[in-house]
Amino acid sequence: MIRLENVTHAYGDRVVVDDVSLELSEHRIGLIGANGSGKSTLARMFNGLVVPDTGRVLVDGLDTRRHVREVRRRVGFVFSDADTQIIMPTVAEDVRIGLRGSGLDRAGIEERVDAILARHGLADHRDHPAHLLSGGQKQMLALASVMVTEPRILVCDEPTTLLDLRNVRIITETLRALPQQVILLTHHLDTLTGFDRVLVMDAGRIVFDGGPEAAVEYYVDLMERRP
Ligand SMILES: Nc1ncnc2c1ncn2[C@@H]1O[C@H](COP(=O)(O)OP(=O)(O)OP(=O)(O)O)[C@@H](O)[C@H]1O
């Protein structure tokens, strides 16, 4: 479980996360809000990519300031631009690199790589140059490379923003089917249908916390009232 206690973060003198306290235990959690409202900064605190200026973030009781390795093992992070996440030349290599230090032997590693590629529709692209994949396939690879490390929680920061409608659906369905807890930041509001909880962020604060329909209604209303 992720717990935030009076968390604040500023870039220079600009406060972008403003005294947020949360307990995130639901299976499917959405985080929505206008551009620049602080969602990514908040989400990056969930796995220690950003540490709070004040307050603390605990993952299963581990403080992200002091236990960054253990926290990263528990909390996987998927970015919106898969190109920034894919680091190896081929599909299989990119997945395999996540298993460094896993303690698995060579055969065990290949078995795990094959299984995860099959699950993400990439089995036929095993030795394919990663940079030649389509946008949708790249996002699947980015997801596969995180999932192979078997995180318990997955944070996805706008994973469908750069994708066409078909791939938005594929990624959304893939995320829905995961047994892991998923925290999804998105501007595709319809992907939140059936979620357990949706948070609306505005100017660094959580301004709504509830079910998906009510949260989307609140957010749309908030945006319509903006000059
Ligand atoms: N590394 C950084 N250095 C300085 N300012 C930053 C940095 N990262 C984000 N910001 C600023 O902090 C504010 C919040 O950004 P953040 O990315 O957290 O918002 P967001 O809600 O995720 O936005 P979007 O929906 O556009 O992704 C923005 O004004 C942004 O320009």
UniProtKB/TrEMBL annotation:
CDD domains in the record: ABC_cobalt_CbiO_domain1 (cd03225)
Boundaries of every ABC transporter domain copy: 2-223
UniProt keyword list: ATP-binding, Nucleotide-binding, Transport
A Pfam family of this chain: ABC_tran
Top-rank taxon: Bacteria
GO MF annotation list: ATP binding
The family this protein is said to belong to: Belongs to the ABC transporter superfamily.
Protein name per UniProt: Energy-coupling factor ABC transporter ATP-binding protein
Protein's organism: Thermobifida alba
Species lineage: Bacteria, Bacillati, Actinomycetota, Actinomycetes, Streptosporangiales
